[in-house]
Amino acid sequence: MTEPNRADLDRDPSRVSGMFDQVAPGYDRTNTVMTFGNDAIWRAATTRAVAPQRGERILDLAAGTASSSASLAASGADVVAADFSPGMLAEGKRRHGHLSNLTFALADAMDLPFADDEFDAVTMSYGLRNVQQPKVALAELFRVTKPGGRLVINEFSTPPDPVFRGLYRFYNAQVLPRVARLAGTNGDAYDYLNESIRDWPDQKKLAAWIREAGWTDVAYRNLTFGIVALHRATKPAGATEHP
């Protein structure tokens, strides 16, 4: 039996990648159970925010099993599902590899294997929090986006209501890992998930990081009482490199 791989807040890329390799087969099922089905609602909100159009080229970074990528590809846009976990990509190809306008790429968020100004829109859901240097990833996303292009980041965040925030943190710490184990997934990975959410900056700080990377028109809105936040921004027209 394979020993469970557990990442920590150092976010060593090899350990994080290995952890996601192990949870890939049951990842979507566990997410649906632990979010009470809200994952589908959040995915739909992200797709609407990206607003993919036929003929556009879109990067879905930290694509995981490519559920979000397939949702974007339904518009007719050409979508690249990129992830640094080979296991996640393999699962994504198994489920969605038949889509002619969806391709897959093994990619490090801090050193993307794409050209400057390549994508009309870039998006990342629940992945920025797992990157060792998230500011570097935001700069890389800026680099590969065309001037005037769009950024959408969906990430776990900080519920603003203190009572709900306390209940949410109790659920993450005490309930979520048990749910993961009952669903047949690496419960240690969801211990890490709780730690990474607790350690992650709130909505305003992430918005500030996005601005620092050169993005403009930065805004966010909370989903499900702020459990997650949907951040949006634009690469300025005429921008050619990180400021």
UniProtKB/TrEMBL annotation:
GO terms for molecular function: demethylmenaquinone methyltransferase activity. The keyword Methyltransferase applies. S-adenosyl-L-methionine binds at T65, D83, D108, A109, S125. GO terms for biological process: menaquinone biosynthetic process; methylation. It catalyses: a 2-demethylmenaquinol + S-adenosyl-L-methionine = a menaquinol + S-adenosyl-L-homocysteine + H(+). Pfam families: Ubie_methyltran. SUPFAM superfamilies: S-adenosyl-L-methionine-dependent methyltransferases. Pathway: Quinol/quinone metabolism; menaquinone biosynthesis; menaquinol from 1,4-dihydroxy-2-naphthoate: step 2/2. InterPro entries: SAM-dependent_MTases_sf (IPR029063), UbiE/COQ5_MeTrFase (IPR004033). Keywords: Menaquinone biosynthesis, Methyltransferase, S-adenosyl-L-methionine, Transferase. It comes from the Bacteria. Methyltransferase required for the conversion of demethylmenaquinol (DMKH2) to menaquinol (MKH2). HAMAP family: MenG_UbiE_methyltr. This is Demethylmenaquinone methyltransferase.
